[in-house]
Amino acid sequence: MEELFDEDAVSAEDRRAEQEALRQERAEREAERARRERVWAARYPAEWAEWTRVRLLLNGPIPFGDDPFDFPDFLMEVGRRPSARHVVTRPDEAQPYQPGNLVWAAPAAEPPKSPYLNAEQAAAYLGVAKQTVYNNRPHIPSLPGFRTLMFDPKVLDELRASARFKSLRLGKSGPRKTTS
Fold first, then answer.
1. Band (10; pLDDT cuts 50, 70, 90)
2. 98 within 8 A of 58, measured Cβ to Cβ
3. Nearest Cα to 166, choosing from 130, 131, 127?
4. Domain extents for the chain?
5. Fewer CB within 10 A of the terminal residue: the chain, N end or C end?
6. Phi and psi, residue 103, nearest 5°
């Protein structure tokens, strides 16, 4: 019976030593990985920043041959960043972010046009100062659900055609006439 106990004790001791060796090995791998990431970030700061953004869009570890798709593979695939405006996108939007579907692309020069006008555009549309639009916003319907005031040009046309438009002092006033 004592002999069995000693074997169990040795076995448990061996397991602890093996687990400690595995923890040590994992810690060394993680330290080496952190060192490599610091080097990559220092040598290729723009590409590294984009890699950290795109890495989140990749579906888990992407197999690339026998090794997972990592920063050196990413850099070989897309190359150096052409300019600060370029971001990595997918040429084939139907496919996920994956090796073979990553390229540098400059964002569109203009954001898509909205059919609605912000306060500054509404003021220009009505021919008044922007502050006038803000001061009279209870009388000018704006679109709900937007963070900034947004106005429908059709509603502004209706407002301009109404008698209220003139009574709200929305028109640009000329010099004041003084009576002597």
1. low
2. yes
3. 127
4. 1-43, 44-110, 117-167
5. C
6. -145, 155
d(CA 178, CA 180): 6
Query: Are the beta carbons of 126 and 170 closer than 8 angstroms?
Result: yes
- As a whole number of Å, the end-to-end CA separation of the chain is 123
For residues 95 and 64, the answer to whether their CB atoms sit within 8 Å is no
Element (H, E) at 118: strand 117-118
Mean pLDDT of all residues in 152-164: 81
Q: What are phi and psi of 163, to 5 degrees?
A: -70, -25
- Give kind and range of the element (H or E) at residue 88: strand 87-89
Q: What pLDDT is recorded for position 171?
A: 45
Question: For tokens 């502050």, what's the residue?
Answer: 131
What does 31-74 look like in DSSP terms, one character per residue?
HHHHHHHHHHHHH-HHHHHHHHHHHTTS-SSPEETTEEP-HHHH
3-state secondary structure of 110: coil
If one counts every other C-beta atom within 10 angstroms of the C-beta of residue 111, the result is 7
Token code pair at residue 138? 């209870």
The two tokens of residue 180 are 């002597």
